[in-house]
Structure formats: structure tokens, C-alpha cells
Specification:
Blueprint lengths: L5 H16 L4 E8 L6 E9 L2 E9 L4 E8 L35 E7 L5 E8 L17 E5 L16 E6 L1 E2 L1
Antiparallel strand pairs: 1-2, 1-8, 1-9, 2-3, 3-6, 4-5, 4-7, 7-8
Length: about 170
């Protein structure tokens, strides 16, 4: 029986893993409900060329429209998730919708839940607004993702008047 040196096997395993993931960083957040709520789900962030692709899949939401934001702290320890702080805003811009020229990097707009409480949202955010690496002012790693009870109105400063927090998750690298 041929024996392959362990160092060679390790090198092949590392090379194989690198080819599967490429150089595209992937980040994710698992959202858990805040006290008294049932909303939960996942949000995935993938860097592709000059964009960050965001894919959110949630369940347990009340039917309707809900504000959806990245928050400045990856701390979901408070029962109401207020420990996650305000919206992620590394450039000091006013609050707005994701398609408005002026908005926080964490302003993702709204996500709509159907009658059964399920919601999906896919966004493309310029990589110049945020990044999925561990370094830089625009890094979202270690930040919080929040789904709110009410719709974001895209104008009330600094929160969009989105109401209480239904679910919270911390963004980490996959």
C-alpha cells in the first residue's frame, strides 16, 4: 500500500479548500428573536467584484414591512437588542434608503414578510460602502443585523422610525 506523506496531504487539502472558496469573502449572521418575538433567520454577505451581495431569509415575522439595518455593535445581549447601538454609519451620512445618494452604510431599507411571516431580500451594495474583511472603517464583521417591527420611512433621523427590534444577529466570517 502506497503511503502519501502527511505534509503533502495537508497541502492538497488546503489547496482544495482554497479553490472551493476562491478569494470571495463570505460573511453571515444568524438572527435570533428578541424577547417576546419569534423572528429569526440568516443573512449572508458575499463579495463579488465591486459589490457585496446580501441575501436575507427570515421567518416568524409579523406580516408586513419591516426596517432592516446593520447596526454599529455586534451585541445582541439586551432583551430588546438595544445593545446593538445605532445604525452602522462609518461615513457620518444622514439616514436614508439604500437607493438614495445619502444614507448610512447600514441602511438596507425594508424587508416584507408574507402572511405566513416569511421574508426574503436580495440586495447589491457597492463594496465602497461596506466590506466583509476584518479591517477598515467600513468592515461589517462584528456588527449587528437588526429587523425592526415597523417600516423604514427613509427620512426620520437617525433611525427611519422603524420601531422596536424583533431579531438580532452578529455578522461573522464564514
Amino acid at each position: 500500500m502506497n503511503k502519501v506523506p502527511l505534509a503533502l496531504l495537508s497541502a492538497l487539502a488546503i489547496t482544495g479548500c482554497a479553490s472551493l472558496t476562491g478569494s470571495t469573502p463570505i460573511a453571515f449572521a444568524n438572527l435570533a428573536p428578541t424577547q417576546g418575538n419569534t423572528a429569526h433567520g440568516t443573512v449572508t454577505f458575499i463579495k463579488k467584484d465591486n459589490m457585496i451581495l446580501v441575501d436575507a431569509r427570515l421567518t416568524g415575522l409579523p406580516p408586513g414591512t419591516h426596517g432592516f439595518h446593520i447596526h454599529e455593535k455586534g451585541d445582541c445581549s439586551a432583551p430588546d437588542a438595544m445593545s446593538a447601538g445605532g445604525h452602522f454609519n462609518p461615513t457620518g451620512k444622514p439616514h436614508g434608503g439604500p437607493n438614495q445618494a445619502e444614507h448610512h452604510a447600514g441602511d438596507f431599507g425594508n424587508i416584507v414578510a408574507d402572511a405566513s411571516g416569511k421574508a426574503e431580500l436580495q440586495l447589491s451594495i457597492p463594496a465602497s460602502d461596506l466590506n466583509v474583511s476584518k479591517i477598515g472603517a467600513s468592515s461589517i464583521i462584528g456588527k449587528g443585523v437588526i429587523v425592526h417591527a415597523d417600516p423604514d420611512d427613509y427620512k426620520t433621523q437617525p433611525t427611519g422610525n422603524s420601531g422596536k427590534r424583533l431579531a438580532c444577529g452578529v455578522i461573522g466570517l464564514k
